[in-house]
Amino acid sequence: MEFKRNILITGGAGFIGSHVVRLFVNKYPEYRIVNLDKLTYAGNLANLKDIENAPNYVFVRADICDFDTVCRIFSEYGIDGVIHLAAESHVDRSIKDPFTFARTNVLGTLSLLQAARNSWNGDWNGKLFYHISTDEVYGALKADGGFFTEETKYDPHSPYSASKASSDHFVRSFHDTYGMPTIVTNCSNNYGPYQFPEKLIPLFINNIRHGKPLPVYGTGENVRDWLYVEDHARAIDLIFHKGKVAETYNIGGFNEWRNIDLIHVIIKTADRLLGNPEGTSEHLIKFVTDRAGHDLRYAIDSRKLKSELGWEPSLQFEEGIEKTIRWYLDNQPWMDNITSGEYEKYYDEMYNNR
Ligand code: NAD
Ligand code: TYD
């Protein structure tokens, strides 16, 4: 079958990537979606069970740093668009192991860029390299210190955000130096189904379910700006099709929460859904040593995306967080498969020969 487009989505077995893959596979049967993922600890094909047999979907287990394999994928599938999400994504892990972050996030991105450049060979017509990044590259805001705009200077503090900042610069350099059509977007914290339970929201939901402590870093006064993951995926779809080449767009829902306030909401909602009397799990809160270099506040100004492309988040936070908590409680086998480590054994056996 001839496909209208052949799109490479990297990191499609991860949290956000799986929502993007699902959206594109279902919405665009005329496109072939090639999901390239290494299946690190964060990759989980169970996130894509519902679309794995779709005729316009292909999964390839590979490392984005493996340049020869990436080049082969470009030529084998005639890739004309890239949506690049593969990355090491957890700040705490980056503090313990910064090298892995530099390797995947910086060198891996460069490997993809170079493979795209070789494959497209100066014919940029109908091509796009779209890089998914984070608001964390902008650094930290004061408690009452305004918002990150597309003009805010990069000031990353963690090895994670430093590696993402570097990859953003490489992507822009391929536009400026070679003329490659590129777009970069910087999004705020995502939440929703299929997030790996090392991140605040799924970790805390799971710990409440098991009556385990809820480790709050520092005083819990750090602020994050939360966006429902499907709204991010919709923004990516819109920008991939309608975004202006060489532009940057910030993505966020103007939805700031102090960690401690969010944690109270999670406890209250989870207790209600579990049938516990109100306040049952409050005693699980445990203030622990702060994260090194913990950014105080992130807050995204996404007015450019709204005014130029008409994007707005579709879900109110109250609705989104309840939906999310309900999803994790209703999908306990998904969570247990991860916490037991079973999911990794399965892939190692299945993809041993690749
Ligand atoms: P995730 O950790 O859930 O998933 C990352 C995926 O990338 C996994 O499937 C993993 O197997 C894959 N991967 C890792 N290293 C790889 C490699 N070397 N080769 C191929 N695949 C590899 O991450 P996420 O939260 O879904 O984030 C996706 C992207 O969005 C990242 O680039 C991240 O920086 C960005 N982002 C995330 C957030 C957020 O709140 N989670 C916010 C803004 C931007
Ligand atoms: P996280 O989900 O790791 O996202 P990020 O660090 O990329 O913003 O953390 C969200 C916030 O919650 C952040 O301020 C750190 C804090 N946090 C805790 O207090 N305890 C935890 O166990 C975790 C994982 C995070």
Report on this model:
This protein is an alpha/beta fold. The protein has a domain at 5-196 and 225-254 and 296-316: NAD(P)-binding Rossmann-like Domain (Rossmann fold), CATH 3.40.50.720. It is 43% helix and 17% strand. The protein contains twelve helices and twelve strands. A seven-stranded parallel β-sheet has the order 3-2-1-4-5-6-10, with helices on both faces. A three-stranded mixed β-sheet has the order 7-9-11. Helix 5 (159-178) links the parallel strand 5 (128-134) and strand 6 (182-187). It is globular. It starts with a strand and ends with a helix. Bound molecules: nicotinamide-adenine-dinucleotide and thymidine-5'-diphosphate. Thymidine-5'-diphosphate binds at residues 91, 189, 199-200, 203, 215-217, 222, 224, 259, 291.
Layout of helices and strands:
Blueprint: E1 5-10, H1 15-27, E2 31-37, E3 57-61, H2 67-77, E4 81-84, H3 91-96, H4 98-120, E5 128-134, H5 159-178, E6 182-187, E7 189-191, H6 200-210, E8 214-217, E9 223-228, H7 229-242, E10 248-251, E11 256-258, H8 259-274, E12 285-288, H9 303-309, H10 317-330, H11 332-339, H12 342-350
Parallel strand pairs: 1-2, 1-4, 2-3, 4-5, 5-6, 6-10, 7-9, 8-12
Antiparallel strand pairs: 9-11
Helix pairs in contact: 1-7, 2-4, 4-5, 6-8, 8-10
Nicotinamide-adenine-dinucleotide binds at residues 10-11, 13-17, 37-40, 42-43, 63-65, 85-89, 104, 108, 132-134, 164, 187, 189-190, 196.
